[in-house]
Design a protein that fits this description.
By secondary structure, this protein is α/β, with parallel strands linked by helices. The protein folds into 2 domains: about 30 residues; about 120 residues, Glutaredoxin (3-Layer(aba) Sandwich), CATH 3.40.30.10. The protein is built from 4 helices and 7 strands. A 7-stranded mixed sheet has the order 2-1-3-4-5-6-7, with helices on both faces. The chain is globular, with a radius of gyration of 18 Å.
Length: about 150
């Protein structure tokens, strides 16, 4: 291989490495988040912004049939929140931090998904002038099993 061809291959390799570093694991994995939300909910869009800022591609789908979306996704009623997302074959219910979603996608646990039950103050999309609450992100399976995945 001549010197200019070697240089071009080296530049392509460096560019590919830089793209992986610049866009992070979510972009490298090519994961797209599809988020279903009530058309009148503002905090859902803020969570989508948090996910985009963390490198995820987010498609927002407004629907008045959220109860059906949650039922079809297998979200236990006790773990419900305001929006339901699908990413990498998993369900993400509510204001789960992007870092937890990344960890789930990296570890690929045998679960249906993650939930930040309710709408915890201070969670991504629920920030405000009030003090943040401590909350847990719960991993859930299709057989009623639940475990704490993360504490914030």
């Amino acid at each position: 291989m001549n010197r200019s061809r070697r240089a071009r291959h080296s530049l392509l390799a460096v560019a590919a490495l830089a793209a992986g570093i610049a866009f992070g694991p979510a972009a490298a994995a090519g994961e797209e988040v599809t988020m279903y939300k009530d058309p009148n909910c503002g905090c859902c869009g803020k969570w989508a912004e948090h996910m985009r800022a963390s490198g995820f591609a987010v498609k927002e789908v407004a629907t008045g049939a959220m109860a059906g979306v949650k039922r079809e996704a297998g979200v236990p009623q006790a773990l419900g929140s305001c929006h339901t997302a699908k990413v990498g074959g998993y369900i993400v219910e509510g204001h789960v931090p992007a870092a937890d979603v990344r960890r789930m996608l990296s570890e690929r646990p045998a679960i249906v998904g993650l939930s930040a039950p309710g709408m915890p103050l201070g969670s991504p999309g629920m920030e405000g002038p009030y003090p943040a609450e401590r909350y847990e992100v719960i991993a859930f399976d299709g057989e009623g099993g639940q475990t704490v995945f993360a504490r914030h």
